[in-house]
Write a structure and sequence with these properties.
The complex is a heterodimer of chains A (283) and B (56). Chain A has 283 residues and is α+β, with helices and mostly antiparallel strands. Chain A is 34% helix and 25% strand. In chain A, helix 1 packs across helix 9 and helix 5 packs antiparallel against helix 6. In chain B, the strands form two sheets. A three-stranded antiparallel β-sheet of chain B has the order 3-4-5, with no helix packed on it. Chain B has a two-stranded antiparallel ribbon with strand order 1-2. The chains are: A alpha+beta (283), B mainly beta (56).
Amino acid sequence: MRLALCYTIVSVENKMLLDSAKKRGVGMERLVDGEALLAITGKGKKEYDAILQRSVSYSRSQALTYYFEKQGALLMNSYDAARICGDKMLTSIELARAGVPTPRTYVALTPETARQAAEKLGFPLVMKPTAGSWARMVHKINDRDALDAALESREEMGSPSQKVYYLQEHVDKPGRDIRAFVVGNEVIAAIYRHSTEKSGWITNTGRGGTASNCPVTPELRELSLKAVSFLDEGIYGVDLMESANGMVVHEVNHTTEFRNSSPVTGVDIGDKMIEYFIKRAKR
Amino acid sequence: MADAECPECASPIAIAANTEVGEILSCPDCGTRLEVRSVAPAKLEKAPGVEEDWGE
């Protein structure tokens, strides 16, 4: 059986995953996305049985995932799942359709309609790109002047994808949000992500937020599993906020990071992922 | 443990034995993000910048 870890760079998480596979005595080939050459019109002989897809580049991930899925490999996560998770608008649509509590959201395609969305949402609101991660270009907008400035910047400097305006109600969370790790049908761990002086209102640990253990309560478990119910079974990071009206889900990540989460939860998240990936590959 | 040189500021950088090709390091002197291009001999290049579509 040929298994591979697909990646863009050797991140801390990818080293942990490779180490876990090695400790389990399982051979895991390295598939560096930037080195791949895809023979589109060839006979398409199956090269791998299963691939753990960890590309940080969404474009590369989509190309390779589709290509190898069509060859017959198991991709974790699947092309369809990554396509939804990698686009915040699609994620929000699916969360709402699945009846998962999620913040009120509008998508506008021009500055004029973005202002209309702001009128419906009220200030403060949050404006995000539909693609991307690590809270890049995620702006909390407190008033009309700030909205106009952000829209002008995007119009002048943004790529076409930056001109898709995703606007969401600002949830007044208690200085933290939650990342729940879903592996198959289990929520194996969760962390609180606390905002700090360095991170400002943002809680992302890559931006200076800090992590602490979050107990996996029945409510958190149920909501997290519901938030992946419209995706192929796989490995996900579900982001939730504690609002005045209960927990809401705002994002689902398809290549979730975990370097700061294993130490505080006491769960070897990378090893759980590898264990599950191997089990699915053998299925 | 091997030594490499930062391509940006020429500072010596210690490369740990378990370092892998493709790993990203930061130069302790100038802070430049560096990608390990080879481990024997140790060779570093400026790491690719974070692209708009990078994420988790």
